[in-house]
Amino acid sequence: MAPVSGIVLLAVGVWGRVSLAVYFSLLDEKATNVPFVLVGAGTVVVLLGTFGCFATCRGSTWMLKLYAMLLSLIFLIVLVAAVVGFVFRHEIKTNFESNLNLALRDYNVTADRHSEAVDTIQRTLHCCGVQNYSDWERTEYFTQRGIPRSCCKSQDDCSEEDLKDPSKAKQKVFVDLIGIILACCLSRYITNNQYEMV
Predict the structure, then answer these.
(1) pTM
(2) N or C: which end of the chain has fewer CB within 10 A?
(3) What is its main location (predicted)?
(4) What is the pLDDT of residues 20-53, one digit of tens each?
């Protein structure tokens, strides 16, 4: 299961770098490293999963114990990363909102990537402004041309609830814990039956 989750991390990292670049352009420099971290973590998980398969095929107890220990370490790192993300979620949101407000204020004043980012975000998320369409009323662009074409009327797809799915998080924790338990059980089974292997 570890190679599969590693491949998923790699895919999400590459997808994030390619598809979410417009969102990262409105964040601080530190946040733009997230896709690279995911690609690196995915690579480590794929290598670890391959090591686990190798250890299982060889029937080596010390390799399986090392695999279980490394899997536990990765689980703890993911848990710490999730807690850090949860703790700093308000700061990330505030940073994104303030940068989006600045991008709205300077929209089309100078041809830059922030104006393109605003258009792409509004078009993709089917939303308008930071909070709603009235955010545009305080901009220079609005006084000259009104609301931009990328702005839409529907706010349905912009809710925070659409981005939250706790069932996926529970499933990931469950699969990781099952992997740790099964690796320990297999190691113990091989140790108990070691005398049969000659």
Answers:
(1) 0.55
(2) C
(3) membrane
(4) 777 777 776 666 677 788 888 888 888 888 898 8
